[in-house]
Each structure stands twice: as structure tokens, then as C-alpha cells.
Amino acid sequence: TQAAAQILGYGEPVFWDLPDRGLVYEEALIERIRHAVELSPANLVYAPSWWEIHPDHSTLSLCVAEAIRRCTRQVSLLMYEVGAPLQPNRLLDITEVNDRKQAAIRCFASQLVNQAYDQHIGALNRFRTYTLPKSVQFAEAYRFVTGADLKSGATFERLRNLLGLQLALFKQLQRTHAMLMGEVEHSLDAW
Predict the structure, then answer these.
(1) Disulfide check for 34: which of 10, 44, 61, 67 has CB 3.0–4.6 Å away?
(2) Mean pLDDT computed over 63-70
């Protein structure tokens, strides 16, 4: 993470030593995030999207959204893609910095042993150029949400609906993974 931060040119990462695949949507984490945001001069917080498949990514996103909703000053949320496409309302041309992004991804060698995440992310960034000019070779997609939107009841109702859909899709993905790993019968009866 520190090597990737150096390649990308941002400050020293802060680690909270939270358990891998163990994040829980809970008051303590929400308040810890809210406190960090309130102490920061930033008015925009980046977080993985709540459409992410990885449970830590989606949980963190929901905790960040709730923390921002509770902030006493105006702060907005910018969600980004890691391993699952989100429903974007912003696209950013990263063609000129894509090589640097790929170099930063390669710093996560322990993750790349399990999957070709660098290729997955590269493919997602290539896919995001579909509606952009031909000169754009790579793009990132974001979902921008204002703190005011998060404070409105309507936004949270839509969020609950989206999360219900996400939970159903996640359960289906778990069943598919179990089937592919031989943990259940390879037949339609198992579904």
C-alpha cells in the first residue's frame, strides 16, 4: 500500500488494522469514520461503491455513507469501482495516467497471486470508455453523492432497495461459487 501510494503521489496511508473479510456495519466503525472525516479539511470522501461484491468493500462503503450522512458540515461521497461495475454519474479519462495506475496495482503482489486483478481492473477501465470519444483509452467510473442527498429519506429508501437487490445477487454469487468449487451438486436441483 505504501509503495502504491508513492507511485500515485498521495500522502502516507493510515492503517486501522481492521480484519480482512471481517468488517461489520456497526456504530463503532461508523463513528470512527465520521470522527476522521470531521477532523479532516476534506469536503469529498472516496470509498468503494456499495455495489462491490467483496464484503469488506460494500460494508465500508455503507459505513462511510452513514458517517457522511451524520457529518455536521457539508461533505460529499465519491464511490469508485474495485471489482464490480457501479451505476456511474461521473466518468474520468485516465488514459494519460493508466500506466502509473497499473504500476500501483502491481504493488499488491499478494492479491495478484489469487486473481489477475490488474487485468480485471484494466478491462473495467477499458469498458468505461464505451460512451466516450475514441481518444479515451481508459476511464474510471464514479458515483457522486452529496451529503444532503444522503441525509434525505428518499435517498436512503433507494439505497435500501439497491442493497436488497445486492444481497440477492451476492447470495446467488455465493451459490455459484459453491457449485463451481464442488461444494454442492452440479445440477439445477441444487438451486
Answers:
(1) 67
(2) 94
